[in-house]
Amino acid sequence: GQQVMQIPQYQHVQEGEDFTTYCNSSTTLSNIQWYKQRPGGHPVFLIQLVKSGEVKKQKRLTFQFGEAKKNSSLHITATQTTDVGTYFCAGKVYSSASKIIFGSGTRLSIRP
Amino acid sequence: NAGVTQTPKFQVLKTGQSMTLQCAQDMNHNSMYWYRQDPGMGLRLIYYSASEGTTDKGEVPNGYNVSRLNKREFSLRLESAAPSQTSVYFCASSEFGRDLNQPQHFGDGTRLSIL
Known about the structure:
The complex is a heterodimer. Chain A is an all-beta fold.
């Protein structure tokens, strides 16, 4: 079946280190969104990428959409304790009207 | 700003009981969604309503029904609860977009346990 795989499942870093999570789809996506969920909270929209090869930045966060529109990444430079949470990608499958598929998420924890 | 409001926040049911989860949004959004989130997994779409008057199945619709009561409200019903439906349920809303491509705003979730 159609899946969106996200790796790694967990990442534990020292504050100040960089962090990257990757999202890979078995099918072409029309767009991809990224969400952050703090522990015990709800997902909060971060950004959406639509174009092949698109790169967007939000302060220390850099988002990329692959050329084939099957993969994406989120990179955080110099992590801070406020970055703690689970990061989800969510892809809209090109050929289906109803298929919004969330990755399983990457949980980021940080050592102060 | 309330955004997306879900009730109740917590619920414990016995197997076979029925229950309706309520969701309301005050952002004048056309599209609304119900997801479930299980430990270690992402969100899985149960049902969605692209606009008032329409509902469609998502990835995991079995055992659930929905009602788009009006533009603001979208409810999720479990007719006969099963332990496998123990989960955290999130409601979300968004502007209407072709191919459901608009950012979604989530409620705080309902933590549901089925014994």
